[in-house]
Amino acid sequence: MGCTVSQEDKAAAERSKMIDRNLREDGEKAAKEVKLLLLGAGESGKSTIVKQMKIIHEDGYSEEECKQYRAVVYSNTIQSIMAIIKAMSNLKIEYDDSGRADDARQLFALSGAAEEQGILPDDLANVITRLWADGGVQSCFTRAREYQLNDSAAYYLNDMERIAKADYIPTQQDVLRTRVKTTGIVETHFTFKDLHFKMFDVGGQRSERKKWIHCFEGVTAIIFCVAMSAYDLVLAEDEEMNRMHESMKLFDSICNNKWFTETSIILFLNKKDLFEQKIIHSPLTICFPEYAGANNYDEAAEYIRSKFEDLNKKKETKEIYPHFTCATDTKNVQFVFDAVTDVIIKNNLKDCGLF
What we know:
50% of the residues lie in helices and 12% in strands. The longest helix is centred in the first third of the chain and has 31 residues, at 2-32. It has 14 helices and 6 strands. α1 runs antiparallel to α14 (330-351) and α4 (70-90) packs antiparallel against α5 (100-117). β4 (221-227), α11 (243-255) and β5 form a beta-alpha-beta unit. The protein is of the alpha/beta class. It has a 6-stranded mixed β-sheet with strand order 2-3-1-4-5-6, with helices on both faces. GTP binds at residues 43-48, 151-152, 176-182, 201-205, 270-273, 327. It is found in: Cell membrane; Cytoplasm, Cytoskeleton, Microtubule organizing center, Centrosome. Pfam families: G-alpha. GO terms for molecular function: G protein-coupled receptor binding; G-protein beta/gamma-subunit complex binding; GTP binding; GTPase activity; metal ion binding. It comes from Phoxinus phoxinus (Eurasian minnow).
């Protein structure tokens, strides 16, 4: 009888050891799985961050994949010049060369078929090049805050000669700059520093936000993107609402949500390059009338950071990790994401009792 008991004890001890080992392995496995939720208002750079993850962690875009973006580049370029030309009429801006009015008519006549077929014919490319070179068009471009214009407008329009070539293949940077509205949820997987990342890019426009809900459960961290350069712009969906105010409102609702009391929030203050260009001639008081600092990058950027950090109602228990980013700059994103990953590793190990 004693013999049986000791065998049972032995078996129980083995089982206990096995359970402990399994728990430990499960903890380690959980610590290696990272779910990142990308949030932010529309056009804040979320999809560009996802594209950067492919470039940095998955060998980038193949030539074949780049070719598939050709039609998007053409469409973005055509849409950009059309937005500027339409705005000229609304803002009562004249062409420097009256002959450009004919080019504008040509632009509208040719653009529909070109976009539909995903092409950029020579006659249309020449029309766009002449229009973009006109002083009146350039003057209208400098007033882009008064209408809706793609951030990459100048990037493509300044490079028309290359883009219009018959053998044009978009570069990685061209692909990064493309703008396609995200609808639904885009999931990306990659491995970095021995961690398995699942990144969820959620449609930014307000009509899409109700679709976020089922993504929330068990996320490791939230990356919240803010377009710093949007401080003097209004929303595409609501021309009364300032884009920065909309971003702050959304950040407040995410940061102080009861579901996210334990979730790390990483704040990407994005489009710092555009912000730096803009702040010199467009004062921050447009968005924050109480701002008394200088209209230079350092002071204004710090003020925006503090405005977002002040929205955190649980400062003693919840930390916000802010970073100034330029989502189209691969080196910058690589550097920032490296720092973000170190924070995630540390917090993950703590949560799993391994730190």
